Amino acid sequence: MLTSSEVASRLSRFPKFEDSYIGLPYAPRMPKHMVKETREAVAIARKFSEEVVKPLAIEIDRKTHEDPGYMPWDLVETANRWGFYTMWVPRMFGGKGFNMPSMSYFAEEIASACVGIMNVIGVHYLAVAGLLTSANPRLAKKVLREVVEGERSGKPCILALATTEPGAGTDVEEVDLVDKGKVTCQAKPVKGGYIVNGTKVFISMGHLSNWTVLSAYEDTRNPADTTIGLMVKTGTKGFSFGTHENKMGQRACPASVLIFEDCFIPEEDVLFSAALAKRFTNKPFRDVAQRYIDYVVSATRPGVCAFGVGVARGAFEAALKHASTTEVGGSLLINNEWVQCHLAEMYKNVVLGRLAYVEANHANSHRGLYQLLQIKPVYYYLKYMPQVYFDRVVSPTLDLEFTAKLMGRLYYDRPKIDDQRCCSGWASLAKFAGTDIGVRNCQMSIEIMGHKGLRQDAGVEKMLRDIKLLQIYEGTNQLNRLNAFKCLIAPQVPQAQVFEE
Ligand SMILES: Cc1cc2nc3c(=O)[nH]c(=O)nc-3n(C[C@H](O)[C@H](O)[C@H](O)COP(=O)(O)OP(=O)(O)OC[C@H]3O[C@@H](n4cnc5c(N)ncnc54)[C@H](O)[C@@H]3O)c2cc1C
Fold it and tell me: What is the set of domains in the chain, with CATH numbers?
């Protein structure tokens, strides 16, 4: 137990710039071309938004009410044609290799028109993040080459990620919690692979995906030490789909039930496990598993923040248009002071939400997942070497055991715990900030619009239904608050215990 003066001395360090866990110092080191590339991503998102998303957003929402079995196959084909499923696939796997932070700006743009449609694209990258951060380049290559081929042939190949179970949602998002959850999805080792039994629920795009990144447990009574990641191809014997949820919002993006009954997965499709981790680190597997989760969510939660900011912006734009064109009591609504204050508040929310995802992405670039990729010479090498070089020279090396070990050491053995906390904490902070802001702006927008805001064709009631879901997935906002506390505040206060209850 620390004395109060020791606690005071630790806390007094907190305000120092070097001690605050932020990524801002990265900004001056950023390769200049990243800005140009991000503009390109935003420009194509804007075009897609105007030509495809806006005309479809309300129509698909209506369609799913009339026909709850509706699946957005056409939308997936359109997004595939526009090249969106390979945009953030690295060039060494045959993709377009856009820098990862640019995805947040892209997401904000499309989410401002419809966050459900954005998730039809975005959730693929949740799974891609699970694939790429596993230090298993051979398997990543096998699956991502199919995604690239799917774009070339016009037959989309997309990915889903399945962790949530009927009795364990929040619990599977933290290694410290998973032993308390009621996990049942078991992967039993057998000769040549694993036999999987269990059910996953609320899996975005499950029915439409060709591959699923599946988390299971070798021993469901000791899940934290026996977590295993498997790649499961749709059509594999023993893997089927149940219903998909008739849910409140984001109805363009189905959430599926996945059923595994004596489903055999060969050894070669094991993505991540205690045995594989031993090849590159001697750290306890719990720590390795927590780092894996942190890598995935540090990459994806800033994106979900951008989803929320997009909705916040859509709600602001609808309110602004309404207030500037509607007369109340003989004068334009926009000339009321309370409306001007509301609009200023909503505008501020959008700007602050953006700063949150930018800063969380900077943290990844400065101290996390993107650190190596965004060192200037590495970035320009990956950007400008001809594709034939990646296909002929780099691609064969991805199958080597040496490459997997090297990636594992770089990503799991060397990085410091403070850096892991910085990225995870900022990602959580951005996630709950951006999505709470989205809810707030939808509410304010409807206040300004009155009953017109409640009509389906005005679009804002749909935004409010859509945004609520963002407070729940990618870790509920409560979990993300706890994780921000654990990563950013608790390290200053040794007697604080998180996830201990
Ligand atoms: C639209 C949508 C899409 C989704 N897509 C996917 C997907 O693609 N893949 C996937 O695997 N999952 C997906 N999910 C599931 C999502 O990740 C879970 O819903 C989420 O993790 C919360 O789990 P839960 O719903 O079981 O809630 P619970 O874990 O049951 O939580 C209920 C409440 O208790 C609180 N709580 C729980 N544990 C704690 C704790 N230890 N401390 C404090 N509070 C706690 C929560 O914050 C929440 O308020 C999706 C969910 C939605 C809504």
Answer: 14-157+284-492 (1.20.140.10), 159-273 (2.40.110.10)
